[in-house]
Sequence to fold (416 residues):
Amino acid sequence: MNVVLQTLPASLYDVNRVRADFPLLGRKVHGRPLVFLDSAASAQKPVQVIETVKTFYETEYANVHRGAYWLSEQATRRYEGAREKVRAFLNARTAREIIFTRGATESINLVAATWGRATVQAGDEVVLTGLEHHSNIVPWQMLAAEKGIVLKVVPVTEDGRFDWESYETLLSSRTRLVAVAHVSNVLGTILPVQDITAAAHAVGAKVLVDGCQAVPHGVVDVRAIDCDFYVFSGHKLYGPTGIGVLYGREALLRAMPPYQGGGDMIASVSFEGSTWAAPPQKFEAGTPAIAQAVGLAAAIDYVESLGLESIAAHETTVVQYATERLAAIKGVRLLGTAKPKASVISFTLAGVHPHDIATILDREGVAIRAGHHCAQPLMQRFGVSATARASFGLYNTRAEADALADALETVQRIFG
Ligand code: C6P
Fold:
């Protein structure tokens, strides 16, 4: 990410010990050992997260911010402790800058519906990139339809890079926001978000970074990036589903109107009118995902216990090896070869639909994703309707890269 990716040699990383933490990885599929290569969609969960959530429900669970009794105070401590954990994980200045949401999608919609509605005016511009996930396109299109703003798109180069020259020409005094992925979920390209932010700030625009595919693969520091908003989902970081994060600069969060109205987000309510609590409560109406937040904190503890630099070094080795093996197969086209790159390999195989590839690989126990990956504009850019995608996590091995390549060779032989 915005740190050096390789600080510890991958050889110091004991992937077999790591795999033992993931009960699901031990199962068989269609009589074959499971080779799970779809962590970009959602990562598997270590026993440390599963047990933390289970024990929390068994011993400490109650609603938060409400009860005057010990159990509720304890649950509140755990929930707010999780917020502090996320603050430190992202290096935010204060836990007041950390909002819990249902996931990255909700985090982006929150920004569009609150900051966006309150700030943008007809003729203003929002700059996106051609590699965005639909979650970082559609909310801005909805805002554009409502407010008459203009969306500008930074093109993606043939090797999958963000086209810096075009970006500079698209920025202007009309730009209100630049919304970019930190890592592409299809190509794996790591975008230069620190430089992107500095250039946006120079024209007075705010910056939202979609960090969904970045946080599992390296250290992220929102103060070093200097972005205004940063979002991610817990389930891709080995945590539970139903929990996500919106980091926002405190001054912005204070100025933004609330997203949803309800319990816990108010200072006072009467039929004459209501006033809002300060952030983060202002943006967390209703009972939050309490156990999921506690599980997310356990997931952060888990990746930090392994070391994000060590995880990145290990994954880089496996992905490089898998890339070499796939590139050697006749008819394989790799999409997104630009460096630096995180743990995703998208490819097509001449004459075979990606869905057929995924179905045949599944019979071999190899789980990959096929389709448009919620990035249809990027598919159009590369002239394909779908790709096959293998995405790697902290538990994947060279042997699994071999299983992928061997299975793909079988597909190639059947159709070739
Ligand atoms: N990408 C994938 O297989 P949610 O669904 O809210 O947790 O995350 C949405 C999202 C936003 N941005 C990026 C860059 C993403 O990769 C995703 C989710 C999954 O690629 C599911 S489509």
The domain at 51-304 is CATH 3.40.640.10 (Aspartate Aminotransferase; domain 2).
